[in-house]
Amino acid sequence: QVQLVESGGGLVQPGGSLRLSCVASGMLFSINTMNWYRQAPGKQRELVASIAHRAVTNYADAVKGRFTISRDVAKNTVYLEMNSLKPEDTAVYYCMTSVAEKGNLEVWGQGTQVTVSS
What we know:
Blueprint: E1 3-7, E2 10-12, E3 18-25, E4 34-39, E5 46-51, E6 57-59, E7 67-72, E8 77-82, E9 91-99, E10 105-108, E11 112-116
Parallel strand pairs: 2-11
Antiparallel strand pairs: 1-3, 3-8, 4-5, 4-9, 5-6, 7-8, 9-10, 9-11
């Protein structure tokens, strides 16, 4: 069974930083693209960042230069380092993958709340 478990959310002041973690199990972590999505109240879920095989990364325009996605294959963990946080970054952040060796099974984590407020 594939599982994704996020952690690291919380309340932070504008301009602050947070690091989210997502631990994967039940899948070949090193070959699958890992994604971070977010959903703010009243808005559609949106892709924030992704990291593919060979560490190729992609970012939404809204977070470029502020967020960094990375992965530790030995720990089956993907990270989202968030700097210079803004109130508009407030959302529930989700880890997500399509597991290639399981017919592109789509798996989501439970989400972690990030609130940016003074």
